[in-house]
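Before relying on records like the one below, remember that each one covers exactly one chain. Contacts with other chains, cofactors or solvent are not represented anywhere in the record.
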Amino acid sequence: MTVADPAAVTYPERCDEGADLQTLDSTIPKLRIDSDRLRADFEALRHIGLTHDGGVNRLALSAEDLAARAWFADRIEEAGLRVCDDDAGNLGAVLPSPDPGAKTLLIGSHLDSVPNGGHYDGTIGVLAALECLRTIHDAGLVLPIHLEAINFTDDEGCWMSMMGSRALIGALNAEAFNDVPEDDGQIRAALRLAGIDLDTVEQAARDPEAVLGFLELHVEQSSRLERANVPIGVVTGIVGRRTYQLTFTGSAGHSGTTDMYKRRDALRGAAMFIVRAHDVVREAYGDGIFNCGDIDVEPGSFNIIPSSACIDVEIRHYKPELLAEMETALFKIARECAAVCALEVESKRMLSRPAATMAAGMIQAIESACVTLGLDHLPLVSYAGHTAQMLSLFTHSGMIFVPSVGGIGHHPDEFTHWDDVVNGANVLLQTVLDLAYGGVPGTLT
């Protein structure tokens, strides 16, 4: 329940953009989210797509995802807020300001999941955003900005990674779907069921001048906060990510009769590359990430020397220059391994997502909210991609982490203590109030 008596609150005028939040501390309303109401929402939603082993299947645009969207829309209307959707299927709750020239502060995450994923990933960001709007609405506050709690379409990439956020920032059109692998038009059928028309998806783009910024609450999916025993992470940046297919090509042959010194074994070259690449990234790029997630070998028989080995490779780093340097180093290793094994190697880039820096003003606002609430906080780089990464290309973005027990993510065992969820939701709420009345502090970067 909220802790402020609306009748006793003094509502200040909106201060100049960039005002010092410390000077506003005595006039900015201090509210608290209703923990029981948020918990009830969480428990209700977790049953939509619940799997036999306690995980969740809410793949984007699936029946379960559409059911979660319908449930979310019902909660919006129930709260007396306005339902807002767009041509990319993004679904939001709007608490409007009476000021016709007001900007919109976007708050949210995603309700879709990975296959048999966890219940906290994305979900707490959407539900906490809705709870912030309900708390402000119930307190009778009239803000000088519009608030929108938004659920983004297909953040996890079942069909197209970050589809909804890409559309919102104007980076998605119908042509982009031509490169999406599909089976007999399945993606278009799924889009139609969700009411999404490829011919109008571009109309989901927002005017950046009408947006104040974006805030996202998310579980950390790592164990740094837990190890430090700190309840809040203030995200300073999100790693850049590049993925590739590397194909090593040799010659098939009889595994028993071909001389060991004359073999052109494609799998040997791929394996050599994986080991060397892992060691180089770990030793020379301590904050970098390398992963090989899949190997496709042909002909694929125990008694035939592999003629082809295609591997899916991913690298991540929060410094753009080091991400590029890693890419150059790994391609060099691939060529060297191919030469040792008398192979050819080809590379195909599948995805390139730039590193993102959170806005300095948003970082300051989140830190100020933590101080107001008496919560310790830790600056962190995110090694997973998030909606805030895409929105940072468009508006001033900020992100709040809460601890993940054991650092587990994308798994049914994903878990965050409820007190930590509540702390994160209250930091989100206080940040929203600080931004509404004080503007984004400092220089917007």
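The chain is about 30% helix and 20% strand.
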